[in-house]
Design goal:
The structure is a single chain. The chain is α/β, with parallel strands linked by helices. It has 2 domains: about 110 residues, 3-Layer(aba) Sandwich (Rossmann fold), CATH 3.40.50; about 90 residues, Beta Barrel (OB fold (Dihydrolipoamide Acetyltransferase, E2P)), CATH 2.40.50.1020. About 25% of the residues lie in helices and about 30% in strands. The chain is built from 7 helices and 15 strands. The longest helix has 11 residues.
């Protein structure tokens, strides 16, 4: 399993690397001492796991997750215990306090699952991928299969899942380029829908379609996109 260590303290990175030498299944493929480099390296190297410090200059660990395209499993490593609840709210694998104890590190490693991110040639996000969503102080790891739709609101996109509707600073056009169109379809100017969440379809005005989603929402598919959808899904 390939891993990257992200911590602004050199001695902390060295100490963790020394402890990880006892776990031959974990291969350290990189280290970063700041958030911006971490975002670049994680998206480039696509590790299975990151050991992520929370309190860093400029951007914290949660901000790193927010900007990633590739979301690996996460073990937070920090000197501050006040972030523990928030870390588990975003489904972090574990939360280790510095100085890291070898027995606690072993416990965290044991939690690793075989369900690690799979690198795809086209780098498109599909239903099995998870994304990190941050809205103010609230954070989530969300499986894309659980997202019925994305809705444009100016320079933001509203993400629908469960009973939540957080806003993220991203354009719908940008988001569309990252999602696999076999599963996520641009219904109209304002909405991308998860095709697996369609409950019923009926013909609508001007050659378009009206879609009933399983979350109770109705979505109008424009005439142009109706033609595209029929070409995609026809036998």
């Amino acid at each position: 399993m390939q891993a990257i260590i992200v911590d602004d303290e050199r001695l902390a990175r060295k100490e963790l690397r020394t402890l990880l030498a006892s776990f031959p299944d974990i291969k350290i493929i990189g280290e970063c001492d700041n958030a911006n480099d971490a975002i670049t390296e994680i998206d480039k190297l696509k590790p299975d796991l990151i050991f992520l410090d929370i309190h860093m200059p400029c951007k914290d660990g949660f901000s790193v997750l927010e900007e990633l395209h590739h979301i690996p499993q996460v073990i937070f490593v920090t000197a501050y215990d006040e972030y523990a609840i928030k870390a588990f709210e975003v489904n972090a694998l574990d939360y280790l306090l510095k100085p890291v104890q070898s027995d606690r590190l072993e416990e965290a490693i044991k939690k690793l699952t075989k369900e690690t991110p799979i690198s795809k040639e086209n780098d498109k996000l599909n239903l099995n991928d998870s994304v990190f969503v941050k809205d103010g102080d609230n954070c989530w790891f969300v499986k894309l299969k659980d997202v019925p739709m994305f809705e444009s609101e100016g320079n933001y996109v509203r993400v629908y899942f469960e009973n939540h509707k957080p806003l993220i600073l991203k354009s719908l056009n940008n988001l569309e380029t990252k999602l696999d169109e076999k599963y996520f379809f641009r219904a109209n100017r304002k909405l991308i829908i998860n095709l697996n969440w369609i409950d019923k379809i009926e013909n609508w005005f001007n050659g378009g379609l009206m879609v009933d989603m399983k979350n109770g929402k109705k979505v109008e598919i424009s005439r142009r996109q109706t033609s595209k959808l029929k070409n995609m899904k026809s036998l």
